[in-house]
């Protein structure tokens, strides 16, 4: 059995799928979808598994299983992460691949959706074994992936080093340089500037657009951020730099609050020096639960799924929830918040900045180019704003959740591509 951390990380996107499923019936009805359209959306184009032997450090050979799902490629080559997890199944990956197709359509990047990975607990592998397992998986997959077929990226328990091994093995097989085979690489090997904080920054662009739409302005805007990892810390940092009052932040151990606003660079320094948020001077200690219901204008869950639930949804004080984590709001809580007119900006829109900059990395690689930071920032802003400006009117007109509005838009785009190809 995996430990709790493994299980938890693995369940986040499953919750997103559950939330999307909840909205599907009303979308089918609203778009007056025919059975053949529902079928084409419900069916992954390719799902396959490979079995491969790897020599372990002990000298013994062990068999591994890898999967890849290429869900829908009507809008372009499929794109999606490679996840290493002991409980990975094809069915689970199908859900994640569907969400990737939805996200890419929402921010109008010319990709379909994919997801894959290996059934393995990386904590049980040495670095050498991890490299050999990765390379063996890519040897099995090399005919089915490619810059114009299917482009992998990092996901749970894979990182930029794993992406380099994937690229290197693929290039050895093809006998040429192909950096565009994978995104999420280090800068020195064709990675993109901004990628490390693109998810947080994309979310901040969307948040500012939402504040503007709701007419919420001024120095009284209070922000609470749950999670202080890659996404949460960068979101807090960017918002602080923009002059917002970030009043509360938390990590897995505890939270801190200062109603006048925290000095975020000092909090970052404190956390990197001590390893925790506790004992930060000039702040009150709070629990993660207290952060969710703290007195704030904007709540940014950026850690785990199902943090806003049946128990606390009625006590949320924020007017806007920016879902930077995947599925931080349970399905029951979503209904309550909709009833209370709290604007929930759904994960599929709020955290899409990461895949947008991955797309930019792919373009840079195809053109053997490196873009300056300013160019990437401007293009990211434009992509995120366009998505928001298209989804928001649907949300207002249809008086539905913003998640439903976003899903509806993506589905229309995928179906349009299928129609133009003559598949419908
Ligand atoms: N990294 C990306 O580009 C990206 C893109 C899309 C979605 N996401 C989603 O954003 C979320 C965060 O990702 P990340 O890359 O920042 O992960 P991370 O591992 O870097 O950080 C996770 C943070 O959450 C904190 N945390 C763990 N348990 C907690 C708890 N019970 N309460 C409060 N905080 C807790 C950890 O201490 C850590 O600070 C995940 O849901 C992830 O799927 C990330």
Automatic annotation (TrEMBL):
Residue ranges occupied by any Rhodanese domain in the UniProt entry: 207-265
Pfam families (UniProt xref): ELFV_dehydrog, ELFV_dehydrog_N
Residues engaged in binding substrate: 79, 103, 358
GO biological process: L-glutamate catabolic process
Residues bound to NAD(+): 199, 230
Keyword Nucleotide-binding part of the UniProt annotation: yes
UniProt KW keywords: NAD, Nucleotide-binding, Oxidoreductase
Listed GO MF terms: glutamate dehydrogenase (NAD+) activity; nucleotide binding
Active site: 115
Residues carrying the site annotation Important for catalysis: 155
Stored SMART domains: ELFV_dehydrog
Gene3D superfamilies cross-referenced by the UniProt entry: Leucine Dehydrogenase, chain A, domain 1, NAD(P)-binding Rossmann-like Domain
Source domain of life: Archaea
PROSITE patterns per UniProt: RHODANESE_3
Self-association and partners: Homohexamer.
Similarity comment: family membership: Belongs to the Glu/Leu/Phe/Val dehydrogenases family.
Listed PANTHER family: GLUTAMATE DEHYDROGENASE (PTHR11606), GLUTAMATE DEHYDROGENASE 1, MITOCHONDRIAL (PTHR11606:SF13)
Protein name stated in the entry: Glutamate dehydrogenase
Source organism per UniProt: Methanococcoides seepicolus
Lineage: Archaea, Methanobacteriati, Methanobacteriota, Stenosarchaea group, Methanomicrobia
């Amino acid at each position: 059995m995996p430990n709790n951390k493994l299980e938890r990380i693995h369940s986040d996107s499953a919750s997103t799928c559950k939330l999307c499923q909840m909205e599907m019936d009303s979308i089918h009805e609203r778009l007056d979808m025919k059975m053949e359209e529902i079928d084409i959306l419900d069916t992954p184009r390719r799902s396959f598994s490979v079995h491969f032997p790897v020599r372990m450090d002990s000298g013994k050979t062990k068999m591994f299983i890898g999967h890849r799902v290429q869900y829908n490629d009507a809008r372009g080559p499929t794109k999606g992460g490679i996840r290493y997890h002991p409980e990975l199944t094809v069915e689970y990956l199908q859900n994640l691949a569907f969400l990737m197709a939805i996200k890419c359509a929402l921010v109008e990047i010319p990709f379909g959706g994919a997801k894959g990975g290996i059934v393995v607990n990386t904590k049980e592998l040495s670095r050498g074994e991890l490299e050999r397992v990765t390379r063996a998986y890519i040897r099995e997959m090399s005919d089915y992936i490619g810059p114009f077929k299917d482009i992998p990226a990092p996901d749970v328990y894979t990182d930029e080093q794993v992406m380099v091994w994937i690229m290197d093995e693929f290039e050895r097989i093809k006998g040429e340089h192909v950096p565009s085979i994978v995104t999420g690489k280090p800068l020195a090997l064709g990675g993109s500037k901004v990628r490390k904080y693109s998810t947080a920054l994309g979310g901040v662009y969307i948040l500012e657009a939402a504040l503007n739409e709701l007419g919420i302005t001024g120095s009284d805007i209070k922000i609470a951020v749950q999670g202080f990892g890659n996404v949460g810390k960068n979101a807090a940092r960017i918002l602080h730099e923009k002059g917002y009052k970030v009043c509360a932040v938390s990590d897995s151990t505890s939270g801190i609050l200062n109603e006048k606003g925290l000095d975020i660079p000092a909090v970052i320094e404190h956390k990197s020096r001590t390893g925790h948020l506790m004992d930060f001077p000039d702040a009150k200690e709070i629990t993660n639960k207290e952060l969710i219901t703290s007195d704030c204008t904007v709540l940014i869950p950026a850690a785990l799924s199902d943090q806003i639930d049946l128990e606390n949804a009625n006590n949320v004080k924020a007017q806007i929830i920016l879902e930077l984590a995947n599925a931080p709001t349970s399905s029951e809580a979503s209904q309550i918040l909709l009833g209370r007119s709290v604007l929930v900006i759904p994960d599929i829109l709020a955290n899409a900045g990461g895949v947008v900059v991955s797309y930019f990395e792919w373009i840079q690689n195809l053109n053997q180019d490196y873009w300056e930071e300013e160019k990437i920032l401007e293009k990211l802003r434009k992509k995120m704003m366009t998505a928001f400006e298209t989804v928001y009117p649907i949300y207002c007109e249809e008086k539905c959740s913003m998640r439903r509005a976003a899903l509806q838009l993506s589905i229309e785009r995928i179906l349009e591509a299928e129609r133009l190809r003559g598949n419908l």
